[in-house]
Amino acid sequence: MKHGPRIITVANQKGGVGKTTTAINLATALAAIGERVLIVDLDPQGNASTGLGIDRQDRTVSSYDVLTGALTIGAAAIPTAVPGLSIVPSTLDLLGIEMEIANAPDRVLRLRNALSHNTAEETGFSYVLIDCPPSLNLLTLNSMAAADSVLVPLQCEFFALEGLSQLLATVEQVRRSINPSLTIQGIVLTMFDRRNNLANQVVEDVRAHMGEKVYDTIIPRNVRVSEAPSHGKPAILYDLACAGSQAYLQLASEVIRRERRLQAA
Ligand SMILES: Nc1ncnc2c1ncn2[C@@H]1O[C@H](COP(=O)(O)OP(=O)(O)OP(=O)(O)O)[C@@H](O)[C@H]1O
Ligand SMILES: [Mg+2]
């Protein structure tokens, strides 16, 4: 078995489907059960950093520094208010990275190399979650090259499945070229509104197409979840009892259960 942390990238080139919310709350839930977790914010928007209460002026280190090779992951990781959860924050510098490293032969492998030089012994992380931008760009490719698996949030709306085939094709392309052991961690349905007939239909369609890859846990649309980032807190800390937080806790236990099954297989 591979040493070092389990690396999961949260990716979907569609915008606003719940990537950041899933990364933050899954990471928090994993930390709450005793895992040592790192989020790498790989989105220039920096929503994961903001959502975890890291103000822009406090981002003196960032994922940009990791991709340029200026800092190791260990040096760029800063603790959050959540015990056991650290983050490599992002800054707007990331917007320029694609141009800056476009001609470097290792441009897709920057994050992977940084993570592999940073073993569990050095930092003690057992999980690394990567929050991707809404694009299949070089940043997302870096995350897929570095990861063990891809976690795909899908919003329960009419166009949910559209774009999924392109995402899966990209995963397949990464698997064939730079990262043969990359797997699909799972697909998580987000922002579900059970009063909406269409949402129910979408759940059925996604399950019919993607079968076992779809998690049993469905994340409901929940106003407390959407309020939490403006308080710089994961929903799970902002309002543990709300339906959204409870669903994310359930998702975390499902993720762990599936991982154990994989390891046993
Ligand atoms: N379960 C939920 N219930 C209500 N609102 C939610 C839920 N999940 C996410 N949101 C809200 O929906 C918006 C988009 O979510 P989020 O930022 O997690 O998506 P994203 O895929 O990371 O977006 P982007 O592609 O821009 O990075 C945010 O305002 C977030 O607070
Ligand atoms: Mg996001």
What report would you give on this structure?
The structure is a single chain. This protein has a single domain, classed as 3-Layer(aba) Sandwich (Rossmann fold), CATH 3.40.50. The model has no long low-confidence stretch (mean pLDDT 94). Strands 3-4-2-5-1-6-7-8 form an 8-stranded mixed β-sheet, sandwiched between helices. It is 42% helix and 17% strand. The structure holds adenosine-5'-triphosphate and magnesium ion. The site of magnesium ion has 5 residues, from α1.
Ions, cofactors and other bound molecules: adenosine-5'-triphosphate, magnesium ion
Q: Tell me, what is the CATH class?
A: Alpha Beta
Q: CATH homologous superfamily, by name?
A: P-loop containing nucleotide triphosphate hydrolases
CATH topology: Rossmann fold
Features:
8 strands; 265 residues; 13 helices; alpha/beta; binds adenosine-5'-triphosphate; binds magnesium ion; Rossmann fold; 42% helix; eight-stranded mixed β-sheet
Short characterization:
This protein has 265 residues and is an alpha/beta fold.
Topology:
Blueprint: E1 6-10, H1 19-32, E2 37-41, H2 47-51, H3 63-68, H4 73-76, E3 78-79, E4 85-88, H5 97-100, H6 110-116, H7 120-123, E5 127-131, H8 138-146, E6 149-155, H9 164-177, E7 183-192, H10 197-210, E8 214-220, H11 223-227, H12 235-238, H13 243-264
Parallel strand pairs: 1-5, 1-6, 2-4, 2-5, 6-7, 7-8
Antiparallel strand pairs: 3-4
Helix pairs in contact: 1-13, 6-8
The structure holds adenosine-5'-triphosphate and magnesium ion (MG).
